[in-house]
Amino acid sequence: MSTILLTSGSGIFSLGLARAFHRAGHRVIVADCWEQTMSRYSAAVSAYHHVPPPALQTEAWTNAISRIADQHAVDVIVPVFEEVLYLAEACEHSPAPAELFAADFKTLVTLHNKWLFNQSARDLGLAAPESHLLTSRAELRDAFAEDPDRVFKPVYSRWASHVVVRPRTLEELEDVEPSSRQPWLAQSFLPGRPFATFSLAHNGRLTAHVTYAADMTSGHGPAFGYRPVQHPEILAWVRRFVEATNYTGQIGLDFIEDADGRISATECNPRATGALYLLSDHPQFANAFLDPEMETIGPTSSRPRVARLGLLSCLFSHSSTFPGYGVWARMFFTGRSIRVFEFRDPLPAVALPYTVGKFVWRCIKEKQDARVLATMEREWNAEPASMTASSHEPAALQTVEK
């Protein structure tokens, strides 16, 4: 049995990981900058620590993670979201408090930065759309004048927020102000079918992989249904990229397949994604995080995993690649729910109204968009604010032992 530390307890990804490790017989510790999350109430979690926010109090957060790892004799730290970058950066200056299931800081930045990822893929001879870096309003105007039939997006963004696809007029980019600190990307628009992947890797070798159709979205946002598919060309692309970068950790990639079957990678997420639910039922899923020598595993079933409330929103606002109402109906009525409730672990579902209510109240109180508030305390944008004096202020830790 190993002791696993998850550096985020927010959302269903973290809960799913905690349950998977617990089912495999491991002890799970969770640290999160939110006092109330579903993971706090899970029977799969042995101890829950309330810690400072990594994006706002970086040094205090990394110190807290180190103390927790020492306190619980943690064997492996598994980051969940973008807090992985803060921990990897800290590990460049001091030894990691435990084995870290993640790539080195330079590799993570290269993949997280949409421009650097695009250039790295193209340098490796892998298919990726032509892209141009924009660091000023003048460069944005020139890029639009040269070819408006592009996708304009920040180098750092989530859930396709702020993305502008094929603007018809410059006025649609009126609020976009690229800078050297917050650059944007002008990327060729690629028509075709969207796919995405989720993989686990150790030193450039895959131990888990799934490809899924990423066409069940509301607008250009995240997927609400994960329909696994076999796509050898995408798998080969991922294998080559992971091997070339000697990657370790969780990684998700977005692809477009054109009418001739050619694929091109558009973005990379060096962290967990919702597609982990397509792998989480595999009896070796937890082991794929721990054993670098095991054979690559895939989904145990072709049955989709779905978030039904999200699927309902797709009926009223979906992308141009929406696969049709027949596919939607089959996914909605036959897909397996990405559920919070489990009979053997019911309390996270019981606590869900309370945790969601606190989040909604905070959105109202702070007048913040829900998508912004959900990520602002753990996201990594290479912003100097994360290194200010205020980030070094000590913060009290709260521990819940179970």
Quick summary:
With 402 residues, the chain is an alpha/beta fold. It is built from twelve helices and 17 strands.
Instruction: Please write the string of helix (H) and strand (E) elements.
Output: EHEEHEHEHHEHEEEEEEHEEHEHHEHHE
Helical percent range?
25-40%
CATH fold-level assignment of the largest domain? D-amino Acid Aminotransferase, Chain A, domain 1
Number of strands: 17
**How confident overall, as mean pLDDT?**
88
Distance between the termini: 18 Å
Coarse structural class? alpha/beta
Q: Biggest sheet: strands side by side, in what order?
A: 14-13-10-11-12-15-16
What percent of residues are in strands? 15-25%
Characterise the protein shown here.
The chain is of the alpha/beta class and 402 residues long. It has 3 domains: 3-102 and 388-401, Rossmann fold (3-Layer(aba) Sandwich); 130-188, Dna Ligase, domain 1, CATH 3.30.1490; 193-334, ATP-grasp fold, B domain (D-amino Acid Aminotransferase, Chain A, domain 1, 2-Layer Sandwich). The chain is built from 12 helices and 17 strands. It has helices at residues 11-23, 58-71, 83-91, 105-112, 114-123, 137-146, 232-245, 285-290, 308-316, 325-334, 347-366, 370-375; strands at 3-6, 27-32, 47-50, 76-78, 99-100, 131-134, 150-154, 164-165, 184-188, 193-202, 205-213, 225-229, 249-257, 263-269, 305-306, 336-337, 398-401. The chain has a 7-stranded mixed β-sheet with strand order 14-13-10-11-12-15-16. A 6-stranded mixed β-sheet has the order 5-4-1-2-3-17, sandwiched between helices. Helix 3 runs antiparallel to helix 4 (105-112) and helix 4 packs across helix 5 (114-123). The longest helix has 20 residues, at 347-366. It is globular, with a radius of gyration of 21 Å.
